[in-house]
Known about the structure:
This protein is mainly α and 484 residues long. It has helices at 14-17, 46-79, 83-86, 88-111, 113-133, 137-165, 168-200, 203-223, 236-255, 262-283, 293-296, 299-330, 334-357, 362-383, 389-416, 423-452, 458-483; strands spanning 3-5, 11-13. The chain has 17 helices and two strands.
Amino acid sequence: MTVLRDPADAPIDRREDGGPVSTGAPEAGGASSAIPPEIDGLPMPRRAIAASAVILAVVIMTLDTAMIAVALPAMARDLGLSAAASTWIVNSFLIVIVATLLPLAALGEAIGYRKVYLAGLGLFLAGSVACYLSSDFALLMMARLAQGLGAAGVMAVNGALVRFIYPGPDLRKGISVNAMMAAISSAAGPAAAGLLLTMGGWRLLFGLEIPLTLLSLLLGLRTLPGQSGSVDRIDGRAAVLTALSMGLIGYGLTELVQPAIHWSAASSLALGCGGIALLVRRLRNDPAPLLPLDLLRVTALRLSYAASICVFAAQMVAMIALPFFLHAVHGYSATTIGTILSAWPVGIALGALVSARLKYPLSTIGLGGLTVFAAGMALLAAFAGLGGVALLAAGAFVSGAGFGLFQTPNNSIMILASDVRRSGAAAGMQGAARVTGQMLGAALAALCLGLFGTGSVVPLWAALVLVMLAFAAANARLLAKRKG
């Protein structure tokens, strides 16, 4: 097992805690060699431009879901939709992403990450234009499906490209910046949507995406690194089965909170899980499986994915439930609610910046971040009923800071604890964990609101439980590392 020293001069296993990784086949216990110099980052200023292109794309893709969710009432009124029908403007986007992330990650490993990334950006741009011009629900849904597929292409290989953009000493910083921007965008989306809706209606949200996506595409065309494929072929049957299975699971999660169609949700989840079981059986001896069983066998990665799902679910529950609670219980205006929630992304930014500079093993930083996140959620759950903008904003800030402290090291582990030739699969799993967590969080928030009403703090306590589950996973990761 290759053991190197981290910035704090504490011996850590780089397979589990980030850093130089192998270019050979993944091993259960560690890495075998360092990344060769020909893929050790881009020269300046090309590196800065490529990094900017990737960061901009991360912001666009993450903002989309958060902003559109806030705009659903306005879109429903304008298009003559019921509230239930309007949710599919968001749900369809997320289902397409979760269904196609892993197949597109495998495609990136086969033909090169740059090609998949740029094609995804181009498709997302076309979908954004179509959304802006849509005059009815059917056209809008087709455009959202195109956007979802394009976003999946970007998210599937984003982390892999970051690995090739930054040199080894700066790689952790690059991952930190990406994690920070994704988290900030997700939390800031509702406030941004509220501002844009007051300025020009829901189409302005898609109008904003058009120039930003075009800029990211043009910058990427000039500067993104190009690598040849690291695998010879794609298992077409496995790709189709993966997309169908993950799509069914995503559909089941979105429908789970609808009492009238519980059987539909249950059957979709059962069929999706059955498809995953067939995939595991088909791919168990594949050295580079499309469903990355090789990565899931690594304890650090498996537990990192679980922790990521839990924290994104917790954040989504809080982001959905808090506005309803603050309006129902305290009668706060949208502006006041936006002021309170804006403290969350500020906390994320500060937490991520601090995390990137701490000289401790990544697992230790992650546990500290989860402790802070739990403290913030406990503060919100316990004292939300008392009201007070300052108190509530403080709870949101502490929660965001803990989220930011955790995400940076956890993302580093998810990307760096894998073989470099499996960068596409690692990036795909990172994105899949994030989207799965967001879908679970949205479903849980809707379930809690339906059962307990908008004036209940139960969703906030549920978010705290999710943070504690993430802590348990991260702690198990650290214990497994010490035993190894």
